[in-house]
Amino acid sequence: MSIQIQSLEQYREVYQKSVADPEGFWAEQASSFQWRKPWRQVLKWNFREPNVKWFVGGRLNITENCLDRHLETRGKQTALIWEPNDPKQKARKITYKQLYGQVCQFANALKAEGVKKGDRVCIYMPMVPELTVAVLACARIGAIHSVVFAGFSAVSLSDRIKDAECTVVLTSDFNARGVKNIPVKQVVDEALAMGCESVTKVIVQKNTGDPLKMVEGRDIWWHDVIKGKRKTCKATIVDSEDPLFILYTSGSTGKPKGVVHTQGGYMVYTEYTFRNVFQYQDGDIYWCTADVGWITGHSYIIYGPLLAGATTMMFEGVPTFPDPGRFWDVIQRHKVNIFYTAPTAIRALMAAGDQWVKGRRMPSLRVLGTVGEPINEEAWHWYNERVGKKRCPIVDTWWQTETGGIMISPLAGITPLKPCLATLPLPGIQPCLVDAAGNEIEGNDVEGMLCIKYPWPSIIRTTYGDHERCRTNYFAAFKDKYFTGDGARRDADGYYRIIGRVDDVINVSGHRIGTAEVEDAINKTPGVVESAVVGYPHDIKGQGIYAYVITGDAISDPDAFKKQILDVVTKEIGPIAKPDKIQLVPGLPKTRSGKIMRRILRKIAEGDVSNLGDISTLLNPEVVEDIKEGAGL
Ligand code: 7RM
């Protein structure tokens, strides 16, 4: 096991050590894992290309560390609790021994279907235990998983399959979410109809069991492929720097990019952060409500907890089904000790009223966590008082898909808290703030753009198939620094408060959505000439999506037209990217070089036009009045 920090004093001491001797620090954290071959060198790096390698020359298999390693000591312990969507259905508990057997069996099935080391496997599945089995089975044989959130549309899925040239798609028949039964496999059929020539096989897990069309020669049932397969499977030993997975995430420009994480560093970092941030204790029941389709699910439902030998829970449903007391009911029933969720869920449940949480005792709870977006004061206090009964520390964990694991966060019960602050960097993490000119801002009580100036083991290695994009996105803005895209404040005590994105990324309910992506989708609607999308403050979602749309011919039925735009966005990206507000406008404010002045559009979307700044340099200043009027301002 990696270090587990016990006090603030020790935190400070370890932090200093990690900066003075990073390689020594990380070698120590990595030493407790099962390596099949030790590394020759801890770290090789430059942020210029970038080229970062951790535990160079080391060989391992991450699933031996998640599973095999625990069999002797905790084979009979529950590894996974699955809480189904329907509360009347019984939860499923899977021990480490059973999970090991299922992963090995499915790994053998993948091999039999021709999947080899380095092949990309797309996983488009709802939150069922087989999703975790699928992820680990890929890792078992050195295949690279690319999980796509099952809420994404066929077009998005197809784009991701093509970009990674996946050979196999793993899916389920349907996704049971609240009262809905979403035809997941049908989305795969639609996606594959848009090209995707690399795909030869689709493996379908039977979830709800409703009738389904299978494509002869391509589609196979999960229960059929595992028939007769052995429940042991020799792990494929891979290089520390071989890719483990690809996960697509939105940026400020173009299509989502495939963030690549590699084996050794990701393993060391997710285990270390899981145990330290949540102060995980042997025997704890841990529940992260994220979806495995996002990085939080990868790192803190699957890998981190299983590496640490924890009992991790997966929830199939939604927070409000059958009623807004569902989370608290589940915590009570399963005696959850550590609970990790998103501010948007907290705000939604808070808005549903106190009656749902009142009367729940939840004495098992010890640690609460949040992730995905800045949490507001009201939600923080409600979480602290109503859920934690003022006796559970809240860890506000800041990190990103690209960082692989938690970067800035309190250590539960150790770091003195301040509401809404991510507080201090974990040992091994060297954040800094820079100004627009790229100069580091020293001292406290300052604000700037958040960068990290030294590599950590689970830093992004590349963007799949396009290394240059990785360089320009993260390493080109500021010399020798990783740029996060976030703005932050460092207060008088050196604590960090994350303010939010400084680029054209909107954070809707903790999901990253690029304005460019939404605009591209809107522009595909017949009759749309141009569009501009900005974020605006939203009570539940954190940020909402506001779309300004220029149309060609006069629109006879604006409501029907707006509905059409929403349909196109749903088809191109998915329901999560649907604009909350659409305003039809005669023009967009542009600079003389033709750039849309989003600053002005943001102000109008916020409903604050008291200070629009200088608009006289615009090509078309008159349009601003029209837009204001159209917005009712
Ligand atoms: C884990 C995850 C990353 C972006 C990031 C921030 C925002 C995440 C916090 C936060 C304030 C937090 N990965 N963000 N955590 N903002 N406080 N604790 O969310 O790649 O999907 O998003 O999310 O803007 O850059 S992500």
Can you walk through the features of this model?
The model has no long low-confidence stretch (mean pLDDT 97). The strands form 8 sheets. The chain has an 8-stranded mixed beta sheet, sandwiched between helices. The chain has a 7-stranded mixed beta sheet with strand order 5-4-17-16-18-19-20, sandwiched between helices. It is an alpha/beta fold and 633 residues long. It is built from 18 helices and 30 strands. Helix 5 links the parallel strand 6 and strand 7 (144-147). The protein binds 5'-O-(acetylsulfamoyl)adenosine. 5'-O-(acetylsulfamoyl)adenosine binds next to helix 10, strand 20, strand 24 and strand 25.
Keywords:
633 residues, alpha/beta, seven-stranded mixed beta sheet, 24% strand, binds 5'-O-(acetylsulfamoyl)adenosine
Strand content: 15-25%
Bound molecules: 5'-O-(acetylsulfamoyl)adenosine
**Helix/strand/pairing category:** alpha/beta
Radius of gyration: 24 Å
Give the fraction of residues assigned to helices: 25-40%
Total count of helical runs of at least 4 residues: 18
Low-confidence stretches: none
Shape: globular
Cα distance spanning the termini: 59 Å
- Average pLDDT: 97
The profile of the biggest β sheet is: 8 strands, mixed
Order the strands across the largest sheet as they lie in space.
Answer: 12-11-8-6-7-14-15-23
Strand tally is 30
